[in-house]
């Protein structure tokens, strides 16, 4: 394996840490899972509750994609106000998302 898996682990840890920094700067509280490529954020902290609308507007207005947790619920209205951001991206992509998310948590 010549260190392939160690390198892969390091790269994903770096991406995860960067996305956490980006989301902290955007004032989006996180629930960080240990076995996933995603970090979930509570958008109620920035005055939002409709995850689907929030994610659509995020793509349209800021060019950043997130997945509404409500998409995984049989009854979306019962879902908590959480959205998922993926860190299985290039570092440059995560940095750009950070720039685009700047100020989103300011009410």
In short:
The protein has 3 helices and 4 strands, in the order H-E-E-H-E-E-H. With 107 residues, it is of the alpha+beta class.
Q: Structural class of the helices, strands and pairings? A: alpha+beta
Q: What is the strand content? A: 5-15%
> Unreliable runs, pLDDT <50, ≥5 residues?
none
Structure summary, number of beta strands: 4
Shape: globular
**What composes the largest sheet?**
4 strands, antiparallel
Distance between the termini: 49 Å
Description of the molecule:
The protein has 107 residues and is α+β, with helices and mostly antiparallel strands. 42% of the residues lie in helices and 14% in strands. It has 3 helices and 4 strands; from the N terminus they run H-E-E-H-E-E-H. The protein has a 4-stranded antiparallel beta sheet with strand order 1-2-4-3, covered by helices on one side. A hairpin with a 5-residue loop joins strand 1 and strand 2. Helix 1 runs parallel beside helix 3. The longest helix has 22 residues. The protein is globular and about 50 Å long. It starts with a helix and ends in a 6-residue tail after the last helix.
